[in-house]
Design a protein that fits this description.
The protein is of the alpha+beta class. Helices cover 23% and strands 36% of the residues. The protein has 7 helices and 15 strands. The strands form 3 sheets. Strands 1, 2, 3, 4, 7, 10, 11, 12, 13, 14 and 15 form an 11-stranded mixed beta sheet that branches. The protein has a two-stranded antiparallel ribbon with strand order 5-6.
């Protein structure tokens, strides 16, 4: 916990902290831990992140919390590894397998064709289930996160895919997309288009608007900072990228 003599200094902070969130902890728990550890009064975020995903998580401090909606509306870039031939109920590696098929015959040409089908304006339904990390327990609990009207397809936009590696059953992509795109749902839909199923083995958010994960501090390293170093990590509102 921050030194009591520095509480006033931290309470006056007004800006953003770029955190590199690890896999296995929820974005909410990251925010809660930072708030408690540094005795912060007002904290928010610029867009949540699945417990099974890593990468850029933007914490907003003080009056900078009013920029939350602007950041949530920004474009994102993701680095994702897909497993072809396996579909899960959550769309990622932590879910229950609902179908498995041999993906050895999937060619690069077929995969590229599937990517073209799911590029641009596409209708996407969110995953019905999500894997939630339970504090102080190993593994994940599978919970229903969407049902009824929440499962309706909505129009989203995928700008581009960059293929990083293609070695079936694995394929690694960099995805640039507008807000609202679910990488887990993209994996599910690509797999169904290919006829073999697919799910996310690894997902990392690398950009959010003009913010980049290379400028972020790992979560556990953040908690080791003293109050002065923590303050020095804060990006002031005056330095925020313009929308």
């Amino acid at each position: 916990m921050a030194n009591l003599g520095n509480i006033a200094m931290l309470a006056e902070l007004d800006g953003a902290i770029l955190v590199d969130k690890p896999v296995g902890i929820s974005a909410h728990d990251v925010m809660k831990a930072v708030k408690t550890h540094f005795n912060l009064v007002k904290i928010g975020h610029g867009g949540t992140l699945d417990a099974t995903a890593s990468g850029l998580f933007i914490l907003l401090l003080g009056d900078a919390t009013r920029f939350s909606n602007d950041m949530m509306g920004a474009d994102r870039s993701w680095s994702a590894e897909l497993v072809l031939g396996r579909e899960t109920d959550t769309g990622d590696h932590a879910g229950n397998v609902v179908s498995e098929k041999d993906a050895a015959g999937v060619t690069r040409e077929a995969f590229d064709a599937a990517l073209r089908e799911w590029r641009g304006d596409v209708y996407q339904a969110p995953p019905e289930f999500s894997a939630v990390k339970i504090p102080d327990k190993q593994g994940y609990e599978i919970v229903r996160t969407a049902e009824g009207d929440a499962l309706r397809e909505k129009l989203v936009h995928v700008y581009k895919y960059d293929m990083q590696a293609f070695e079936p059953p694995l394929a690694r992509l960099e995805i640039r997309a507008a807000k609202g795109v679910s990488v887990r749902a993209l994996a599910r839909d690509l797999g169904r288009t290919l006829g073999c199923g697919a799910s996310v083995a690894d997902c990392r958010r690398v950009r959010c608007g003009e913010w980049n994960v290379v400028d972020a501090i790992p979560f556990m390293s953040l908690l080791k900072l003293d109050a002065v170093d923590f303050k020095n990590r804060v990006v002031p509102r005056t330095a925020f990228p313009r929308p």
